[in-house]
Amino acid sequence: MGFPSPAIDDIERQLSPVVLCNIGQESRVLETDVGFAVIEPVTKKTAGDVLLILCDGHTQFATLMRKALITDNGEAIEGTAQEEVEVLGRVTFFINRATTEEACPY
User: Fold this and answer.
1) Domains of the chain by start residue, with CATH
2) C-alpha to C-alpha distances, 32 to 9, 40, 61, 72, 74, nearest whole angstrom
3) Rounded-to-integer distance, Cα 23 and Cα 27, Å
4) pLDDT (tens digit, 9 = 90+) per residue, 38-64?
């Protein structure tokens, strides 16, 4: 039999997106055009947060700037227009793809 190896104490966890991005049970991973986005439930919104929103039947990302939501195309959603917006979550990480279908030029 013997005793357990002391080297086991020095083994590090293998890095994965779950560990690096702190993905929990309430986290959602959404595929985007360029990779993935890790979405967490929103408890408190603060200026500068990137939010996943549902507006006019489409999901899109928007940054909260003061009292306005600024979408990726630069459109500002403010005032009464925000009543039609549903916030689905806060983006905690964007994970970009390292490869594409096209050959890498380097």
Assistant:
1) 16-96 (2.10.109.10)
2) 39, 16, 10, 13, 18
3) 6
4) 999 988 889 999 999 998 889 999 999
